[in-house]
Each structure stands twice: as C-alpha cells, then as structure tokens.
Amino acid sequence: MEVHYEELSHRLSPGTSCTNLGSSLDLASMADLEEENIQGSLRFSLFYDQLQSKLVVTVLDAQDLAVRDFSHNVDPFVWVRLLWAEREDEEQSSMQCVLDEWQTTLRKKSCSPVFGDQFSCTLAEEEVPRVTVRFEVRDYDKYSRHGILGEARAPLNSLKLSYPLELREDLQVPKKDMVGEALLSLKYMPTSQRLEVGVLKIRTVCHPNKTERALYAKTSITSNHCKLRHQRTKQKKRWEVTVFNEVLTFVLPDQQIRECTIIVSVYEIQPSNKSSKHLIGHIHIKKDKTFENEHWKLMMQSLRQPIAKWHFIFI
C-alpha cells in the first residue's frame, strides 16, 4: 500500500507557534478539565514505515459527539500529540515530552465529522514503543476557551504497526500528562500587598535528537479565569535541569491575592527563531472556596518568608 506523507493540516511544533485554531488552547489547558458530557468515538489509523522510519497518523472521523449545553451544534477539530516517555515501562508516573503535535481541519456544525487529515513524523524504530498518540477532540470557540469533547489514546508499545492499523476508540475524559517539574518559591507580604513567585529550577524531559533549545517561564495571576497580571523570566539554555533563580513580584489588592490562581507556564524556544515558541506545560497553585494548594497554605502560614517546593508540570 502506498502511503503519502503530505501533512494536510497544521503542524504546531517544533518549528511554529499555535495557529488560530489553537489560540484558545492555552486557556483551555490552564483550566481544570471538568467536562461531564463525554460521548462518541474517534476513528484513526496508525502505520510505521520501517523503510523511511516514519510514523504516519491519520485522523479519519468522529461519531456522535456531545453538544455543549449552551450551543445547539458543535464545531470539532482534533489536537494530536505524540508523547515520548522518558523510560520504556508501564509506570503511569513516567515523565514524558511532546515529540510533535498537530491539529486537524475544523469541521463546522457536525456531531459526526469526517476529517481525513494525515500527519507523519520521523521516528527511529527503537523509539516506537515509548510513544503514545494522544487525540483530543475539541469544540472550536472563537470568543472563549475551546470546549473539551473527549480524548482517545493509543500506546504504540501494544500495537503492531508494520501495516496500516485502523482503530475506533470511545472518547474518554481527558487526562493530564506529566512533562516535567519545577522548584518554585512563594512569599506573601500582606502590608505591602506583594506576592513574590520565584522560578528557581525546571526539570524537563528532552528527546536526544532535539537541536539546541532554550526555556522560559511565564507566570500569570488570574481570578475567575481572568488574567490580572503576568511576567516572564529570561530565557535560559535548556538542560536536564535548567536553573533560573528569578523572583517575579506582583502587587495586587489583598483580596485578589488571597483568592487568585498562580499559573506558571513553561515554554521552549529555538534561540535563533523567536517565533518557535512551544508550550511544554503548566503548573497551577491556587486558593479558592473549595481547594487550597499545600504550597499556598505553607506560604500563608509563613508570611514574609519565601517557601520553596517542587511541582509537577502537566500538559
């Protein structure tokens, strides 16, 4: 069977930033996944071409997607990520990195859309068992964060891909994947209404074949999903553990500080290409009526003192 490697839709990494379809995905990733109405299925095919050392992923169609409560239709597209595990084992806690990611064409007003989008990625045969393909089906929203319609996953270590393999999977509630960890410090000074967020160290998994990269972290302070302030660190050359030792200071009214969410977003960039920004993952630290993060609690118990703690980074 002849397989064509033309990429029919948008390639999002490593060389490009998000396109218009992905413009709301940062906010969607930052929000807790609380969608309840997950239904329908996704059909896709996978094939590993040993002669060309290419993994070919084709998103075929979806069926019976849920319609969100405030809308009478759905505008679906599929976000595809190749997740590469740090270790080849079955541990769910194994740290991963995103090897490549793409998004399909948008299909308007269809609960059973046909896509037919094909993507490919160069991949050594011995790397295949470490890869999981994650398909996240989203409902496009021009003015707000995209809706979450469900996800399907295909761990390649359990599949025979020497010929095109077609699968249909029921959509599940999306899960977050651990892609790194960061040492952060927090300090709150109530008299001056200052919140200090220290970005000290970041550990990430980097595929050995990746060219030179740099990292930076953007810290956002939000309340009720509205961004109040944000600052970013300087970019540093990416190592297994990248040291920043930077403190970002935010001055906010006391009430906003006490009920806000701190979101630390870690980005990768090619130093020679400023438009190559690529999101690695997020950390959330918050205090609200129903939840109080342990680090937040320690900060409030030790006012005016910096409190450091490691946090997992999720995508």
Automatic annotation (TrEMBL):
Record-linked Pfam families: C2
Biological-process GO terms, alphabetical: calcium ion-regulated exocytosis of neurotransmitter; synaptic vesicle endocytosis
GO molecular function: calcium ion binding; calcium-dependent phospholipid binding; clathrin binding; phosphatidylserine binding; SNARE binding
Signal peptide: none
Domain C2: residue ranges: 38-169, 178-311
Cellular component aspect of the GO annotation: axon; dense core granule; plasma membrane; synaptic vesicle membrane
Domain of life: Eukaryota
Similarity remark: Belongs to the synaptotagmin family.
PANTHER family cross-referenced by the UniProt entry: C2 DOMAIN-CONTAINING PROTEIN (PTHR10024:SF175), SYNAPTOTAGMIN (PTHR10024)
Identification of the protein by name: Synaptotagmin-2-like
Organism (species): Cyprinus carpio
